[in-house]
């Protein structure tokens, strides 16, 4: 029986950092900024909100997001 190694999601609060999204910033711009701010070696694969992958051309404002909403950051595997 072969078991796949489970990788826990990156929790930016666990590593003492947090990131916010500017309401007018596209998710493509946010991905670049977050990768740089968190010093990630791998690219961000996708951003997920309420189990839906966010379109890179959308913004938090266009998705009617509120300040307390949480966006999942999925990192590409190396």
Automatic annotation (TrEMBL):
Pfam assignment, any one: Rad60-SLD
UniProt cross-references to SUPFAM superfamilies, sorted A to Z:
Ubiquitin-like
Q: Which InterPro entries does the annotation name?
A: Rad60/SUMO-like_dom, Ubiquitin-like_dom, Ubiquitin-like_domsf
The source's domain of life comes to Eukaryota
In what residue span(s) does the Ubiquitin-like domain sit? 24-78
Write the protein's name.
Answer: Ubiquitin-like domain-containing protein
Organism for this UniProt entry: Ancylostoma caninum
């Amino acid at each position: 029986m072969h078991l796949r190694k489970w990788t826990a999601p990156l929790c930016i609060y666990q590593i003492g950092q947090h990131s916010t999204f500017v309401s007018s910033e596209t998710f493509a711009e946010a991905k670049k900024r977050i990768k740089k701010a968190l010093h990630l070696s791998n690219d961000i694969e996708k951003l997920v909100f309420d189990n839906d992958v966010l379109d890179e051309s959308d913004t938090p404002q266009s998705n009617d997001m509120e300040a307390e909403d949480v966006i999942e950051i999925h990192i590409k595997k190396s």
